Amino acid sequence: MKWVYILAGIALFVKMVIMPDSAPNLADISITETVVKESGVVNAVSGIIFRNRLYDTIFEVIVFTIAILGSNFLLANENPSCTIYQFKDQPSIILARLGATIAALVGIELAIRGHLSPGGGFAAGVAGGTAIGLIAITSSYQWMQDIYQRYHAAIWEKVSVLVFIVLSVITLSGLELPHGELGTLFSGGILPILNIIVAVKVALGSWAVVLIFIRYRGLL
Predict the structure, then answer these.
(1) For the chain, what is the radius of gyration of the CA atoms?
(2) Contacts of 206 (CB under 8 A, 6+ apart)
(3) Which pTM was predicted?
(4) Mean pLDDT over the full length of the chain
């Protein structure tokens, strides 16, 4: 993972040192209107995060990655929990899985339409992680671990970080996709793509943390 952080450092160097800082004169115009116009999305918050402060978002993604690696490192010397308590009664299982389904659908909605409404990549990832956590309290740990390894979730998580950094560097260099029509689903240039990538990264990272804590600390 060292090379991921090296790339992030290079991206910050390019942004702060090499690329010019052309600050517009905002004395007579609305900052919110300016952000919406420049980013091509209705959600000005996403516009600020992914366009005007993209370098800051890069490090937010890396901080989340470090937190996952730190959890694995700090718990590596502990003995795995012998007993994992889970919900066994049918009503709790049904309610938890219903909540997981709703959380997953909300996560997908936030990832796809986060540039048009409140929410975005991080909120979508949290919703996805919540769905995974609700499944974890009603399912076998070994079953969830097998699925995590079968679909190489750890690799996809790292790939999503790398793809996010590469797209961020390209965006910071001035190369952008067409913004499209303001307010439509296919608008905002690269912002919807970044939303989805961050959502995938946060959800898979949450999955890894849930499995780590279940293995070493039990569930309940």
Answers:
(1) 20
(2) 125, 126, 128, 129, 130, 132, 133
(3) 0.70
(4) 77
